[in-house]
């Protein structure tokens, strides 16, 4: 089956992306190499988020399929905190790369020989709660502008950067560790693992399960991804599945945000299919599924065996589908570039909820609760935008250096250490007028109560003074070391979200002029009606 159907309509090869009328474009056009299968991370997230079982007879074969990357020692990725019973959450960065390193990926995506790590055009933070009762999958749009920190690829020390401001997906060019550090700095969420997959895996996995059911709310023809479907439900296999999950111009407003919503629907359906069809209890079907997935898999070395992956899957098997939430980081237009986005202020509540191991699927977290005055302050700006002066007034040697190093590890822009003019009994975060939000971010990162913030005209930047009440450790004693609880409503404000059990949702086809046919801008539904000589992607 061929991927490319552009020859079916004269002039289609000259199609160019057209922004929705009256809306800001949230992404860049890019060549065909950038338009193909940006969602290979879907396959991997499904592998992580579904129950699995395999006999020892699979172990050697499947382990040999997996590529591993050693992240090295000093990773600066934060530490997941144990709950009252000593259980810890699991946070995995799932990446989909646009690199072309195999013949199959070249056939599917074109632009052979790009090599390297490519760009992380799919990024999903997969959070599995400490008690394994719930999970959250948060997508980060690839067009998000961030501060990429100074980082070095452990596999190739010459591949390094001193840091820059750019698109979040570009950090992968310096290795998976750099991409993890960038996302950790952006969100404050600790990351223990990464998984990366080439986009050919989505074709093989959709075939291995016998197709994935999807629904579109009107006729759609995305002339860029080549997805062509009539209104209603369809079972997608192979390249048709690939066209659906890579469609950027077919859904929503034609931006990367609409694509993440469709990806979530596809992934939820894939999970339900594997569970309901008994695929994972059928040894033959399971082998085909696992073989397809692991061949396209690159992980950190601590996950580099089938045994490790199955142990992870066994934990996640306990999470019911109605407690697995798919959501997308809240964004706003980048003030300096209308074709890019930056995190919205409301994204900080989502980051805090995930870092604090809160379920976003309802339950006790669904209603706001008044935080006592002893609760840590809430973050409102990213750590990467905050520099801190740390002064040691505790009387204990080295305290300022320890806390400054902890803040740097949490992604703060800078932290300098010095001695306070005199010993003080109480830890306090001082800040100049207008910098309260930055002070809240510092206090939140360290578990310092909101009542310990103080505006002070004598300081020129946020200044943390460590008192004798905090003589050891990097989390304030008596505080939780975590952000104060936020409500589900607050965390998901202005964000698309759904749970994996929702089977009656249809992907919203764009109603804007996001595609072109023979040089004429039009909606995907109009393109469907006019492209009568182009076959549908699926019945």
Report on the structure:
- The chain has 2 domains: 307 residues, 3-Layer(aba) Sandwich (Aminopeptidase), CATH 3.40.630.190; 102 residues, 2-Layer Sandwich (Alpha-Beta Plaits), CATH 3.30.70.
- It is α/β, with parallel strands linked by helices and 539 residues long.
- The protein has 15 helices and 25 strands.
- The protein starts with 31 loop residues before the first helix and ends in a 9-residue tail after the last helix.
- The strands form 8 sheets. The chain has an 8-stranded mixed beta sheet, sandwiched between helices. It has a 5-stranded mixed beta sheet with strand order 19-18-22-20-21, covered by helices on one side. Strands 5-8 form a two-stranded antiparallel sheet.
- Helix 6 packs antiparallel against helix 9.
- A hairpin with a 6-residue loop joins strand 3 and strand 4.
- The chain is 26% helix and 21% strand.
- The N terminus is likely disordered.
Number of strands: 25
Uncertain spans, ≥5 residues at pLDDT below 50?
1-44, 49-57, 363-375
Strand content: 15-25%
Alpha-carbon Rg, integer:
24 Å
* Name of the CATH class of the largest domain: Alpha Beta
Q: What do the pLDDT scores average to?
A: 79
Based on Cα principal axes, name the global outline. globular
Helix/strand-derived category reads alpha/beta
The CATH topology of the largest domain is what? Aminopeptidase
CATH superfamily of the largest domain: LCP protein
- How many H/I helical runs? 15
Helix content: 25-40%
Strands in their spatial order, largest beta sheet:
1-14-9-2-3-4-15-23
CATH architecture title of the largest domain: 3-Layer(aba) Sandwich
């Amino acid at each position: 089956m061929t991927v490319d159907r552009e020859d079916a309509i004269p002039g289609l090869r000259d199609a160019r992306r057209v922004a929705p009328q009256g809306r800001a474009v949230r992404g860049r056009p890019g060549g065909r190499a950038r338009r193909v299968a940006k969602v290979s991370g879907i396959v991997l997230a499904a592998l992580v988020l579904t129950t699995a079982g395999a006999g020892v007879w699979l172990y050697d074969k499947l382990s040999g399929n997996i590529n591993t990357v050693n992240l090295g020692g000093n990773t600066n990725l934060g530490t997941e905190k144990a709950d009252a019973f000593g259980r810890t959450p699991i946070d995995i960065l799932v990446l989909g790369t646009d690199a072309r390193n195999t013949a199959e990926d070249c056939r599917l995506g074109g632009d052979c020989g790009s090599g390297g790590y490519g760009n992380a055009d799919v990024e999903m933070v997969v959070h599995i709660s400490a008690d394994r009762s719930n999970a959250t999958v948060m997508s980060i749009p690839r067009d998000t502008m961030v501060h990429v920190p100074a980082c070095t690829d452990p596999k190739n020390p010459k591949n390094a950067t001193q840091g820059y401001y750019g698109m979040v997906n570009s950090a992968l060019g310096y290795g998976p560790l750099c991409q993890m550090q960038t996302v950790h700095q952006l969100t404050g969420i600790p990351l223990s693992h990464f998984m990366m997959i080439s986009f050919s895996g989505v074709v093989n996995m959709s075939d291995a399960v016998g197709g994935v059911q999807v629904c579109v709310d009107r006729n759609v023809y995305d002339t860029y991804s080549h997805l062509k479907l009539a209104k209603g439900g369809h079972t997608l296999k192979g390249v048709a599945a690939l066209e659906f999950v890579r469609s950027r111009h077919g859904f929503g407003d034609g931006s990367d945000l609409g694509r993440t919503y469709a990806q979530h629907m596809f992934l939820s359906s894939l999970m339900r299919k594997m569970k309901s069809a008994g695929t994972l209890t059928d040894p033959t079907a399971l082998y085909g599924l696992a073989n397809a997935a692991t061949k396209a898999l690159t992980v950190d070395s601590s996950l580099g065996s089938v045994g490790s992956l199955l142990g992870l899957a066994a934990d996640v098997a306990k999470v019911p589908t109605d407690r697995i939430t798919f959501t997308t980081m809240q964004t706003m237009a980048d003030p300096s570039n209308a074709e890019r986005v930056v995190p919205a202020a409301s994204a900080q509540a989502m980051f805090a909820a995930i870092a604090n191991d809160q379920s976003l699927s309802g339950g006790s977290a669904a209603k706001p609760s008044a935080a006592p005055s002893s609760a840590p302050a809430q973050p409102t700006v990213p750590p990467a935008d905050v520099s801190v002066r740390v002064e040691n007034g505790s009387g204990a040697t080295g305290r300022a250096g320890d806390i400054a190093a902890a803040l740097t590890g949490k992604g703060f822009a800078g932290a300098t250490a010095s001695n306070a003019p005199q010993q003080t009994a109480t830890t306090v975060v001082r800040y100049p007028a207008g910098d309260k939000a930055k002070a809240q971010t510092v206090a939140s990162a360290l578990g310092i109560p909101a009542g310990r913030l103080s505006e002070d005209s004598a300081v020129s930047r946020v200044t943390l003074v460590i008192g004798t009440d905090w003589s050891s450790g990097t989390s304030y004693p008596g505080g939780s070391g975590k952000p104060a609880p936020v409500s589900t409503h607050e965390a998901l404000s202005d964000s698309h979200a759904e749970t994996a059990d929702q089977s009656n949702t249809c992907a919203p086809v764009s109603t804007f002029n996001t595609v072109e046919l023979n040089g004429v801008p039009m909606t995907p539904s109009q393109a469907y009606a006019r492209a009568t000589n182009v076959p549908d992607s699926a019945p």
